[in-house]
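Sequence, please.
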């Protein structure tokens, strides 16, 4: 399809791909060919992921799996009967959010009543854990006062976006700090307990229960109230991940055979064991080699927004060095890692304004371009983003096919709650992903629903479901 598009493009720009133009076409296509994955190759990738998922679920094999398949202890999706007021706390960077969320059963809606953003000063980020959680508890108290909620004991959903080992819905051990935090006395400790202790030290308010929430799970749950067939969450933005509802009998690391549990796949690590070596291009290998974490998050580096722009830059640089672009003269900007932003890909691929956007971006990068150069740049962007969408589809198809087979169904109808800037902002990504999923999971009818604030509303919904299940167990 892309080759035909390029042929037509040459006809429009140069009145026919003859002589040097034909040579250019063939040489550019040669460099882009490794990005073009056939349906058979995508099916093969899916089969490899399926094996790794099974390994990750195993009691004795999970430590060898590159796809970690982490139990979340979220045991159900919304059923539409959840209601009430909830708090949500979203901590994942130098700011954190506190939210008041109201779930309306009659209208099947999750409303963000209000929220507040609180800064975390540098001295607290590098101080003691006690000081950090005292600061969080103080900001939460201030928010309760502003909402006139002081005196109410509300449940809280806690999105804590750092590497943790979850032991229960309300118990999560911090493995290590990232993102510039280095608070002492927290690594190896239960962060829920540290939060509760800070609230108890104040003594002027309380919370009834806490549910720990991964942002991908929050994405699924924020959609699950609107569409109760939503049993998969997917993020494809700066990073990528997915979760889904697995049969408990297959979750060998957790006791119990009945029901289901949401599994956080951590699929960004797929390929870390070398199983995708034949799919990696020389450009992927260079991106990995120069990244801050070589050898890990292989799949994420092939498809997510943090890396797509850099892959395109490396391809453009290679074509320039081979004198196929920009008269063989790279600019200082093109030689600089990170200079080609991932958002440029979306802008260049816009159906109506893409070519004009390409010209502006190439000018911004101080490149001596002509119209053919701009067209080639657009082709490179299209090729790299298309591979990302199709690889993402292969991974998602693995999950929906697994759910169908797990349940012994001839046909599965399910919904994916999805979030992330690549999915939301790229003009073609969602359409290409959905088309590939239809081919790779032909016995599954998959609907896609954009998440609304997974780390806020989704966290509150996890708490609402946990509360409903707890009440049901008391009534049995």
């Amino acid at each position: 399809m892309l080759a035909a598009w390029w042929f037509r493009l040459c006809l429009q720009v140069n009145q026919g791909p003859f002589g040097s133009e034909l040579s250019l076409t063939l040489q550019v296509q040669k460099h882009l060919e490794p990005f073009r994955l056939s349906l058979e190759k995508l099916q093969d990738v899916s089969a490899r992921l399926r094996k790794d998922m099974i390994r990750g679920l195993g009691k004795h094999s999970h430590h060898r799996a590159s796809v970690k398949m982490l139990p979340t202890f979220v045991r159900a999706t919304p059923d539409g009967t959840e209601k009430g007021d909830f708090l949500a706390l979203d901590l994942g960077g130098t700011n954190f959010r506190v939210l008041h969320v109201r779930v309306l059963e009659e209208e099947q809606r999750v409303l963000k009543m209000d929220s507040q953003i609180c800064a975390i000063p540098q001295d607290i980020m590098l101080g003691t854990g006690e000081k950090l959680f005292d600061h969080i508890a103080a900001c939460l108290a201030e928010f309760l006062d502003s909402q006139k909620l002081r005196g109410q004991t509300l449940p809280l959903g806690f999105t804590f976006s750092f590497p943790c080992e979850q032991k229960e819905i309300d118990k999560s051990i911090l493995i290590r700090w990232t993102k510039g935090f280095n608070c002492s006395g927290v690594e190896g400790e239960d962060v829920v307990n540290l939060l509760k202790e800070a609230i108890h030290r104040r003594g002027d308010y309380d919370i009834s229960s806490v549910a720990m929430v991964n942002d991908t799970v929050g994405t699924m749950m924020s959609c699950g109230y609107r569409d109760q067939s939503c049993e998969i969450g997917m993020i494809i933005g700066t990073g990528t991940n997915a979760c889904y509802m697995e049969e408990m009998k297959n979750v060998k690391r957790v006791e119990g055979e009945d029901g289901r549990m949401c599994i956080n796949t951590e699929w960004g690590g797929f390929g870390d064991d070398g199983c995708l070596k034949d799919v990696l291009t020389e450009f992927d290998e260079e991106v990995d080699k120069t990244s801050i974490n070589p050898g890990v998050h292989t799949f994420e580096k092939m498809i997510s927004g943090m890396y797509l722009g850099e892959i395109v830059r490396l391809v453009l640089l290679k074509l320039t060095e081979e004198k196929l672009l920009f008269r063989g003269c790279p600019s200082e900007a093109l030689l600089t890692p990170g200079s080609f932003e991932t958002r440029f890909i979306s802008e260049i691929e816009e159906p109506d304004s893409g070519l004009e956007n390409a010209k502006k971006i190439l000018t911004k990068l101080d490149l001596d371009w002509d119209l053919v150069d701009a067209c080639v740049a657009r082709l490179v962007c299209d090729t790299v983003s298309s591979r990302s969408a199709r690889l993402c589809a292969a991974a998602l198809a693995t999950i929906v096919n697994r759910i169908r087979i797990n349940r012994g169904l001839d046909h599965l109808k399910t919904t994916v709650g999805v979030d992330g800037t690549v999915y939301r902002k790229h003009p073609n990504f969602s359409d290409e992903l959905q088309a590939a999923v239809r081919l790779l999971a032909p016995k599954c009818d998959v609907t896609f629903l954009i998440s609304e604030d997974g780390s806020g509303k989704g966290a509150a919904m996890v708490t609402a479901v946990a509360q409903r299940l707890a009440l049901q167990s008391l009534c049995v």
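Residues 84-214+454-469 form a domain with the Nucleotidyltransferase; domain 5 fold (CATH 3.30.420.40).
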